TrEMBL record:
Residues 10-66 form the DUF397 domain. InterPro entries: DUF397. It comes from Streptomyces iranensis. Pfam families: DUF397. This is Regulatory protein. It comes from the Bacteria. The lineage of its organism: Bacteria, Bacillati, Actinomycetota, Actinomycetes, Kitasatosporales.
Amino acid sequence: MKISLDLSRAVWVKSSYSNGNEGQCVEFAPSIAATAGVVPVRDSKHPAGPALVFPVEAWTSFTSAVCGGQFPAL
């Protein structure tokens, strides 16, 4: 099933793990998560590009694992 999600008014927040020099940055839209139950995620270098959309529970699990150091540093 394909669901259309309007992200034109989304407020994007840059990850606190981004390195700050416009390099490897991820942005997410928490306001959409609060209303739609999904978290849109995009590459900040390509804001007009596609966004991946994850269920809130999956995003929470992923960010908890990142914060907990469960992934090796690149």
